[in-house]
Amino acid sequence: MKKILLSLLVLLAIALSSCRPSSPSVYRGLPKTYTTAYATMYGHCYDSISSAVLTLDLYSDGLELTKDNSIQGTGYNLCLSDVLVPDSLLEEGTYSSSDSAEPFTFLPGRSYEGYPHGAYLLNIEENKVKTIQVLDSGQFVYRNDSLLFTLYYRNAYGSKATYTCSYAGALIPLSK
After folding, report:
1. CA gap 153, 137 in Å, rounded
2. Averaged over 140-163, what is the pLDDT?
3. Where are the domains positioned within the chain?
């Protein structure tokens, strides 16, 4: 009787553990490559830091920026709103997320009063933002007109997940 009861308990434990959803390690359906990238240079816009500031704005296939600078279509928009550079447009090198305000860094993603800031990813469907994913840390490398990103975020289960993606091509300058 004890063997049957023990066997039933083991089977029940196995059945219950298999019903638990697995924690996804990557955000499903994210693009691995982006087709368009814009850079907006703001210069030395903060009195308290010596670095110049620019924004990187990347678009997946299916999204475009209209003449009036609005996003149109369906796809993903990867945005790094505060990239700190020495004194020019994006210089070749490795940039890491940091609050230090040093050159070759970018601000990690945060939500401020319900709005994303720093590094974040917009999922856009039919010209409307469907979801916002804040990217809380990571780095990117810029060399030979190519960007390679390794970014981290918290998934729906609170676990740290990795997102890697790239862009190859010249950055399109945007005026502020």
Report:
1. 7
2. 93
3. 33-174
